Amino acid sequence: MRNVRGDFPVLERTVNGNALIYLDSAATAQKPTQVIEAIARFYREANANVHRGLYALSVEATELYENARKRIAALIGARPEEVIFTRGTTESLNLLAYSLGEARVREGDEILVTVMEHHANLIPWQELARRRGAVLSAVGITPDGELDMDDFRRKLSSRTAIVAVTHVSNVLGTINPIPEISREAHRVGALVVVDAAQSVPHLLVDVKELGCDFLAFSGHKMLGPTGIGILWGRRELLEEMPPFLTGGEMIREVWIDRATWNDLPYKFEAGTPPIAQAVGLGAAVEYLVGLGMDEVRRHEEELTGLLLEGLRVRDYVEVYGPHDPQKRGGVVAFNLRGIHPHDVATLLDQEGIAIRAGHHCAQPLHRLLGISASCRASVYVYNTPEEIELFLAALDRVWEQLG
Amino acid sequence: MSPYEDLIIDHWRHPRNKGTLPDPDVDVTEANVPCGDVVRLQLKVRNGKVENVRFDGRGCAISMASASLLTEMLKGKRLEELEEMRQEELLEALGGVIKPRLNCALLSFRTLRKALEALGKTGSHVNPSP
User: Do the beta carbons of residue A114 and residue A157 sit within 8 Å?
Assistant: First the structure.
């Protein structure tokens, strides 16, 4: 992959007197000039509301908005009308839990999640189960941090209405076997919802290859702006589902006591959408496609390998998740023996190194691992092998000071 | 300012007044739920004064050092004085704490406030134990 660092202005700044080493892209990615400029250009040259105006400016804004949708659809191998703009993965999953829950989940049905879910792919299903009198259960993991597929098969049954699973764990980094999960779930008539917040930014994801029914991801983790996310769903299912938010844009005809709904995807896009954000996300997708998702993956696999290797040779470090970099995304969670992750993060920050410390919105998983929190380093297109070396050396200094 | 002054490292490695009391007048626990830090504080009060104090808990270096240092600040003090105590005094004693870690540093102070509230309710500082 070509060197992209010059595209990311924030990487030029210093933190606490040191060059910034940003290792928290799993939380949010930095933005290239191409994305920042696309957003600024939209506001400077083409700002108008979409799908409404009969004037040239609105037509232009609508085209930019819809072109972004087409780009995103092409990225994941989907049809544009199946791509719904939301505020982010969390809203996408809440939309599903309400709307799909209403259409498909009855009392006594089962919803199957996994213990490695981010809270965003857990709480909406907990709440749905509570509202509908459904039963929520969770698939466990193997000692190596992979999904326990035997446990999955044991818990999957003809009562299972929905399987909600993350594609890549935001803590363990594990890449889950979605095609296999989809096949097994469909065999018993269950629908498959995939949290792709940590996969679409980093891997080549094709919804047809995954075989799932729904896919949710965020713009800001894939070089795009905050406030925009995607829900992809199979057309026939989206048509069957009632709307989530209601109001303008999502209607066809309105009377004082009733209304009919707009076509897909607009049925699920009530109100003025995040237009500039969609345009920015479109630019981010163009940027990633320009690099090549295979190249992005290769780059991250190399960095993840260096990270894992470097952490493993340090006997004061405990690493979580699969050992093989091919089985995981660019996310590595770890702990320094006897040291609280917050202390590690604070000391690294003194050297300009940004990592995440905490439970990463995955409390059940941390409880299962027997820890209250962990450190997490995550990489993206702009990180370099030299940064990984500097990070590992800084970790040694943390250990010298606190170990 | 380094976020880990020698004082903090020292109190973290060698906590003062750590453990439990056999017959405390008050025994309270506070937690920073998001990071899992927990501080338990026990006070033995006689004649309106803190006669003995113990803390226990788990968490980051800053929260544990802060709890340890706070116990030293409490011993021998009158409860009225503790009621007057401001959180800035603890932060200053710690040598200053960086903004992102204030919550960690102040966990022990919140535990103290909880202890004083509990004592106020039971009135044990008004009626010293015989």
Answer: no
Ramachandran sector of residue A136 (left: φ over 0; alpha: ψ -120 to 50; beta: rest)? beta
Do A122 and A166 touch, CB atoms closer than 8 A?
Answer: no
Which of A311, A330, A333 has the alpha carbon at shortest distance from A379? A330
Determine the 3-state secondary structure of B83 from DSSP.
helix
**Quick check: B96 contacting A, CB < 8 Å?**
no
Task: Calculate the dihedral angle through the C-alpha atoms of A108, A114, A118, A121, rounding to the nearest 10 degrees.
Answer: -30
Closest among A206, A146, A137, A134 to A171, alpha carbons compared? A146
Domains of chain B and CATH, by start? 6-118 (3.90.1010.10)
Please tell me chain B's helix, strand, coil percentages from 3-state DSSP, rounded to the nearest 5.
45, 20, 30
In the block, residue with structure tokens 């134990």: B129
Q: Within 13 A of A83's CA, how many CA atoms are on the CB side? A: 24
* DSSP class of A47: -
Indicate the SS3 state at residue A174.
Answer: strand
pTM above 0.90, yes or no: yes
Contacts of B77 (CB under 8 A, 6+ apart): B49, B50
Q: A380-401 pLDDT, tens per residue?
A: 999 999 999 999 999 999 999 9
Q: What is the chain B residue with the closest CA to A374?
A: B35
pLDDT for A307 equals 97
Task: Calculate the CA A298 to chain-centre distance.
Answer: 19
The residue ranges of DSSP E strands in chain B, in sequence order, are 26-32, 37-46, 49-58
Q: Given CA atoms A201, A202, A203, A204 in this order, what sign does their dihedral have?
A: positive
Residue with tokens 């479109």: A282
Provide ipTM, 2 decimals. Answer: 0.85
Give chain B positions within 8 Å (CB) of A372: 35-36
Backbone torsions φ then ψ of A171, nearest 5 degrees: -115, -55
Is A359 in Cβ contact with B4 (below 8 Å)? no
- pLDDT of residue A360 exceeding 50, the answer is yes
Contacts of A338 in chain B (CB under 8 A): none
Q: Is the pLDDT of residue B123 over 80?
A: no
Whether domain A35-289 has CATH 3.40.640.10? yes
CA B122 to chain A, closest CA, distance in angstroms equals 34
Among all chains, which residue has been given the structure tokens 């939380």?
Answer: A27
Which H/E stretch holds residue A64? helix A56-75
CB of B9 within 8 Å of any CB in chain A?
A: yes
CATH topology of domain A5-30+292-397: Aspartate Aminotransferase, domain 1 (3.90.1150)
How is chain A split into domains, by residue range? 5-30+292-397, 35-289
Give residue A27's Cα distance to chain centre.
Answer: 9
**Other C-beta atoms within 10 Å of A280: how many?**
30
Q: Choose among B120, B34, B52, B126: nearest CA to A340.
A: B34
Q: A289-310: per-residue pLDDT in tens?
A: 999 999 999 999 999 999 999 9
Query: Residue A357 CA to chain centroid, in angstroms?
Result: 18
Closest residue on chain A to B62 (Cα): A343
